[in-house]
Amino acid sequence: MDDFSLDSGDTFEPTVDIAETGPCSRTITITIPASVVDERLEMQLGTLVSEAALPGFRKGRVPRKLLERRFGADVRSETRGQLISSAYEKALATAELQVIGDPDFGDMESIKDLEPGHDYAFTVSLEIVPEFELPELDGVPVTKPIMEVNDEHVDGEVLRTRYRFGAPARITGPFEPLDRMVGSVAIHIGDSAEPFFENDRAVAVVPAVEDEGKGQFIGLLVEDLSDHLAGKSVGDEITFETNGPESHEREDIRGKTLKISFQVTDAERVTPLEISQIVEQFGLDDEAGLRAQIRLSLESRRDAEQRNAEREQVYEWLMENIDFELPPKISEAQAAGMIEQQRLEMTHRGLDEDTIELQLAKIRSESETASRKRLRLMFIMSRLTKHFEINVTEDEVNARISEIAASRGARPDAVRAELAKTGQIREISMSIQHSKSADRIVDTAKVTEMPAEDWNKLVDAKAAAKS
Q1: Cα–Cα distance, 303 to 283 (Å, whole number)
Q2: Which of 147, 159, 373, 385 fits as disulfide partner to 433, beta carbons 3.0 to 4.6 Å?
Q3: pTM above 0.85, yes or no
Q4: Percent of residues in the chain assigned helix, strand, coil, to nearest 5
Q5: Whole-number Å distance between alpha carbons of 171 and 156
Q6: Taking 90 as the threshold, does the pLDDT of residue 235 lie above it?
Q7: Residue 110 buriedness (CB in 10 A; 0-12 / 13-18 / 19+)
Q8: What CATH class has 15-128?
Q9: CATH number of 167-271, picked from 3.60.15.10, 3.10.50.40, 3.30.750.80, 3.40.50.2000
Q10: According to the CATH classification, is domain 141-147+287-466 in 1.10.3120?
């Protein structure tokens, strides 16, 4: 039968009863009046009578009873689905509930049918945004790390730039730190016969010496990745196991043993460009001009990192001073949203792609406690966005996209199209909102300055204590 739809101008008001089943969970019972049920069934049957055509009958001339026998169950099922959808949206608007994730309607196969002349009631289980009070936000204690960009910093960035624009050369092995290889990968969960993930162009990089063997592969942080990759050659099949992070976006691999098989098909090693080549490529006069430009870039990055350090302290303070219960389970959508926000934020800060993927792998490997902490912060910042009435303009979104494009060496319009396709424009807007909200608090904070070297030691000590 054809697909019929209700008139979009639904005006009925369902009866809504809300039961609190937990700090962040609600069960709502929605009742649709019998008059609405009858009206919608009659509307659908009337449309069917006027539009249906069966062999031996002209269009609009099929007897109603015949149509009801043939299509009555389908009409009632379709009308039920439309009424449930419409009534649910109206119930949310009336109750002003902010829902997290997907509603649970139960087993749709067991939901009762519509009955002419009877009210229709159904129940939905929801998880909602937690409710909490904000503390006094003026005078939050914040330490500002102070650092002067010196010649040593410039030397290091010059070396990284030489490698970034260096000439890759194909190699066969044995692989050394920072060598990059491509190959086909298959990942199995435990002893499953079928792989849950396959890719013919997976990329792996032998971790740098300072990374102490740790690196990311296919978005996963592998503690002993160097042991598996270093010394291997093109043509080798590399097999190893790792554990699925407890807070990974995909629920089906959380805490599971992952068996990885990586067949190396190609590899390259980068030879850094000479400084004179970098100078020529950048269109500069000499090495002094290159170093001056790099110093300005480092100072700009320093300022951004300085502000980010102040925001991070605001985030920590908010977490310590705002308490509420979370939904019992982090959904795949929430976990994926957190990951994408972190990706966009690091891209905005100018981190290169390899560094970003490594940091995201570390975030995925966090404990459930750390992941829930990030989720709590998302709720807090969303609340602050409303509290401060933060708005994001189209120009601000475009500026952020331009920065992301510059970091990738891509055109802004191409990056915008990619972000729009994956639904990440909203994530960019949220990231800007949260940063602006944190900046409001930083602007009224009680600021103490500290040398960056001492600040880094303090941060490292805190991280070690948490570990």
Answers
A1: 26
A2: 385
A3: no
A4: 50, 20, 30
A5: 26
A6: yes
A7: exposed
A8: alpha beta
A9: 3.10.50.40
A10: yes
